[in-house]
Amino acid sequence: MHDSLFPTKKWRIFLIARPQQRPKRQIDLVNENIHFREVMLIDNGSKKVMSTRDAQRIADQRNLDLVIVQAKAQPPVARIMDWGKVKFEQQKKIRENKKKQVIVQTKEVRLSPVIGEGDFETRKKAATKFLVVGNKVKLNLRFRGRMMTHQDVGRQVLMNMAKQLADLANIDQMPQLLGRQMSLLLSPKPEVIKKAQSEKKNKLKENTNAKDED
Q1: Residue 27 phi, psi (nearest 5)
Q2: What's the predicted TM-score (pTM) here?
Q3: Of 62, 127, 202, 204, which is the most buried if we count CB atoms within 10 A?
Q4: What is the mean pLDDT of the chain?
Q5: Which residues of 75-106 are buried (b: 16+ CB within 10 A; e: fewer)?
Q6: Residue 27 forms beta bridges with which residues?
């Protein structure tokens, strides 16, 4: 038999990648973006169902904006306000809250199985400095050479450091060995984090007052 008598069909498969869809941007239901026929307008302590056109006319007469505050209600609830001012205040509050937040980071403090008393105190001060501002501390201890056969000594060094920092931190992770490195993780206690947040808030307030005085 010849190949020419029984031709072989070759198929090619093409994969078409669909473009990744971007998340839809949320549109504020304000003024011309409102497409409901009627709304429940809350204004000056009163409630009244009316056409969206009439509610918009009232807002326009006051040089203010008609804003939907409860879109899923039947009918949707609307208020009249200065939307630009409200939006600005909302964004300002978000920025201020971000500044007040204490961003928790994990800081490393290196130890040795044969660490001296002076170096131990130095590492303890470094760990304390990290904890009091709300950061976690990872105590890392590396075994070199024959010290690998004395893992109990390294574990004792880590636990001794954790014990001396017990007023500030809790043990998140007990000593674990990975290769030639043993580590222990400490997290600041809730009251320490709360104090750090309070101090950051006060510092931010002092800086704001100083700028106002200038």
Answers
A1: -100, 130
A2: 0.50
A3: 127
A4: 84
A5: ebbbbbbebeeeeeeeeeeeeeeeeeebeeee
A6: none
